[in-house]
Design goal:
Blueprint lengths: L2 E5 L4 H12 L3 E6 L8 E3 L10 H4 L3 E4 L12 H24 L5 E7 L10 E2 L9 H11 L2 H5 L4 E6 L1 E3 L4 H11 L12 E2 L1 E3 H12 L6 E5 L5 E2 H12 L9 H8 L3 H5 L3 E2 L2 H5 L9 H9 L3
Parallel strand pairs: 1-2, 1-4, 2-3, 4-5, 5-7, 6-13, 7-11, 8-10
Antiparallel strand pairs: 9-12
Helix pairs in contact: 1-7, 3-4, 8-12
């Protein structure tokens, strides 16, 4: 049994993670931005860039998932700033609190494969250099905000997540209604690589990192078999027994999604090299298995 502090616990990944950790017997402390309404909740204000060190003093680990959503708003200049600030402020607050308590607490902090930028057909591992673009800028600032914990001697890992597949939220939850109507075809050319992972495996990967404190630095949280977007659309259609052939033109996506369209159309051929080396085993290692799990009612 371990004590784990979780930020961002109300999101798709956070909700599933709290359930997973609780089920295996860990004590979970949820940091919330409202008055506590249940046992184990502690109020904090990440925008203050400050967390009371006493909150993490007795914890074995912190999982930091806090940050404004990237797919549920248009990317205005103001919202781009919020995307960056919400991640940097929360991470700095957590990292500073860990450093102030002596650095004995493990930190597993969310990050993203956007670090690598859109790289076409290039295979990308944790050893690859960073790319260009807004999300690459976000990730560099996000991961750098954990420096106080690193400098304080803490064990810190960054979970560079790809497309997280879950029916309760995220990009695929928005695609499911269209796919059920047979309208879930390719987005843009459909040739772009989408590094994917089910939310169940995402949560299991985070738990694996909690249990492997000697694994530090960036870790790509994606499935072992990268796929093109049109392959994902086809697998989803097959699982639903619906066609997935009508494409959404790139121009239309940019009109509807604004800046976020770039994330949909970008290509990231990311491989989970370090998870594989650490002995992680995926519950859903291939698209057919993942999609059947996604569309099967719980």
């Amino acid at each position: 049994m371990a004590t784990v502090v979780v930020t961002g616990s109300s999101g798709l990944i956070g909700t599933a993670l709290v359930e997973h950790l609780t089920a295996r017997g860990d004590a979970v402390v949820r940091l919330v931005r409202r008055d506590p309404a249940a046992p184990g909740e502690v109020r904090w204000d990440p925008s203050s860039r400050r967390l009371d060190p006493a909150v993490v003093a007795g914890a074995d680990a912190v999982v930091n998932l806090a940050g404004a959503g990237i797919g549920d708003h248009r990317w205005t200049s103001a919202y781009r700033r919020e995307i960056i600030d919400s991640r940097v402020d929360a991470t700095y607050a957590v990292a500073t609190a860990i450093a102030e308590t002596g650095g004995a607490t493990r930190l597993v902090s969310a990050s993203a494969i956007g670090f690598y930028g859109s790289r076409g057909e290039e295979e990308l591992t944790e050893e690859s250099v960073g790319g260009e673009g807004f999300t690459a800028e976000v990730v560099r600032a996000w991961e750098s905000a954990a420096e106080p914990a690193v400098a304080g001697g803490a064990s810190v890992a960054f979970v560079r997540s790809g497309l997280v597949l879950g029916s309760a939220g995220g990009a695929l939850a928005r695609m499911l209604p269209l796919a059920r109507l047979g309208l879930g075809g390719p987005l843009g050319s459909g040739r772009q690589w989408w590094p994917w992972i089910t939310v169940e495996d995402e949560v299991r990967a985070i738990a694996h990192l909690l249990d492997t404190p000697d694994l530090t630095g960036p870790v790509n949280a994606v499935g072992p078999h990268p796929a093109r977007q049109r392959e994902i659309a086809s697998a989803l259609g097959a699982a639903l027994h619906r066609p997935a052939v009508l494409p959404a033109p790139s121009v239309a996506l940019r009109v509807v999604l604004g800046g976020f369209a770039a994330e949909v159309l970008d290509s990231h051929r990311v491989l989970p090299r370090r998870l594989e080396e650490a002995g992680f085993a995926w519950s859903h290692p291939d698209l057919p298995t993942a999609m059947r799990w996604l569309v099967t009612p719980a």
